[in-house]
Amino acid sequence: MKEEFVQFLWAEELILPSEFKLEDNRAGKVLARGKWNHNSGPDFKDAIVQIDRTTWVGHVEMHLKASDWFAHGHHTDPAYSNVILHVVVKSDAEVHDFQGRTIPVLVVPEEEVLSFQETYDRWLANKGILPCSGFLAATPGPLIQTWLMNMAEERYKRRVEFGWEVLESTKGNVELTHWILLARIMGAPTNSDSMEMLMRRLPIISIRRKTWSWDDFEKWVMAVSGLSGEMQTTYQQKVFGVEPMSKAQWTWGRLRPPSFPEQRVRQFAWVFYSRMIEGSQKLFWKTSFWEPFLTGRRPGKSTLETWHLNMVPYLGLGSWTEGWTSAEKWRELVPEKNHVTKIFEDIGLSLDSALESQALLEIHQEYCQMKKCLNCAVGKYHLIAKDYDRKDQG
C-alpha cells in the first residue's frame, strides 16, 4: 500500500463519506477535500472541514501510519502548522505540530483501501506494455477521445516549448533553429544530440558563399560529422574554421541499417543542400523531393511522414500565428505506425490521424511505462467504476 494511492482515493472521494467520526469520537464533515499538492508541503491544500460545529479551513496530511508524521519531521516544520486533519490508515500515535497543537485524526478503514488496492496491484504487476489492457476495451469512447486530445495537446505543447528554448539558444535565429530541430528529428531516436552538434558546426553564411556540387558538399558534411575520416583539405578547415566531430559521438546500437548515422547524415545533407544551396522549394516530406537522391539511400514514406509530423510543432516558431500552437495541426496528418500504436490498435482503438498516434505515444511514455495509472483518465475511470460496483453489491 502506498501513500499516493490513499491520496488518490481521497481526492476522488472514493474513501470515507463526507460525514464521519474522528478517532476521539467527535463528529466531522468534509465540505471540501482540498487541492492535491504534488510538491513539498501538506498533501491537500485549502480543505474545509467541520468538526462538531466549528468550520476549519486549512490543509490535510495523509499517512499510512500516524507515526509517519514524526518520521517525516512534520512536528518541527512550520509548513504543517495549518494542518486541520490528519488522515491515516493506522493510528499508532497522537501527533502535534511544531507549536504543540494536537492534530485531529481520521482513520480510514483498511478494508476500504484494500478493496481498490487489488485492482491497482494487478495493474502494477502486469508485465505487459499496457497495464490496463484488460479494461481498455470497456472504457467509454468519449472518455478515451477526450483523454487522447488532452495527451496530444500536452505532447504538442512540450514540443513547442522545446522549440522556443532552441530559438533562445540561437539568439532568435529562426532559420538556424529550424535546421537544428530538423536535424534532431532526423537523428531520432538515439542520435538527436549528435545531429544537433553537427548542424551547429555548419556555418550557413559561409556555405552559401561557396559554389558546391552535391558530391563535394556530401563529402564535406560527412567529414565534419567525423563519419568519413578527416577533413578533406586544409583549405576548407581554414576557410570554414570547423572542427570535425568524433565518430565516438555517434550511436549504432539498436538501430537498423536505414537509421544508421551515416545514412541520416547523408539524408540531412541532401535536405540542406537542396534547400539552402540549390534553392529548392519542394517539401522534404514529399517523395518527389528525394527523386534525385540515390535509390538505396532514400528514406521510406513512413519515415518522411514521421519527420513531417514531428516538425509541425516547430513550423510556427518566430511567428505570432496562434494556429501553430494547437495539436489540431496533427489531425491533418496520417498516423504513424509502430510497435506502440499497434498495441493499442490490437485492443480496438482506431487511429484516424497523427493526433491520435502522438497521443498514444505520450500516454505510453509518460503513463503506461511509468505505471502512473492513478494519473491516467482510464485508470481513474475503472477504479471509480469499481467503487460503483462495490456500492451496488453492498
TrEMBL record:
<dbReference type="Pfam" id="PF11013">
    <property type="entry name" value="DUF2851"/>
</dbReference>
<dbReference type="InterPro" id="IPR021272">
    <property type="entry name" value="DUF2851"/>
</dbReference>
<protein>
    <submittedName>
        <fullName>DUF2851 family protein</fullName>
    </submittedName>
</protein>
